[in-house]
Write the structure tokens for this entry.
Amino acid sequence: MPSPFILSGCSGGGKSSILNELKDRGFTVVPEAGRRVVADALQTNSAALPWIDPQAFCCACCDLHMQDLAKLPDQDSRIFLDRSLVDLVAYLAMKRITVPDNLRAALRAVSYSKIVFLTPPWQEIFVNDSERKASFEEATLEYEHLLSSYQSIGYQVTLLPRTSITERTDMLLNELDQVDA
């Protein structure tokens, strides 16, 4: 089975829309652990929220992400992940919080494709909701940490332009087709 591809970037940059388009085109897509952890924490009154206990939030995300990876279908077609463990490390670095040992160990154990796609900050499409409380400025800082983190550990980062969902998705797939050729 080929390693899954990561689509990451700042909150509100259009990742989910691109991943929905990939899913509509028949690809396997793994949803972001963070949004599911936040939704569960809000429902259960857990402190594992990024604005209450960032480290507990990241540990819960790590656990859920690892469960997701363990359930990936054994297939030859491309699989796309909404974020990765690298995002958690970048988030903790941004918050100046020590990365827990279990997250470091999990990151060493996973195998992602070395090609990563990032969505840059895009104020015109940025919105807040019950699971995304960060400001656009915080999202921009998040993006800078993500870009730096992925590049510093050797990932080939492709920035997706601020264009339509279809154009962004086509660009992503075209780049992967060129790598496969």
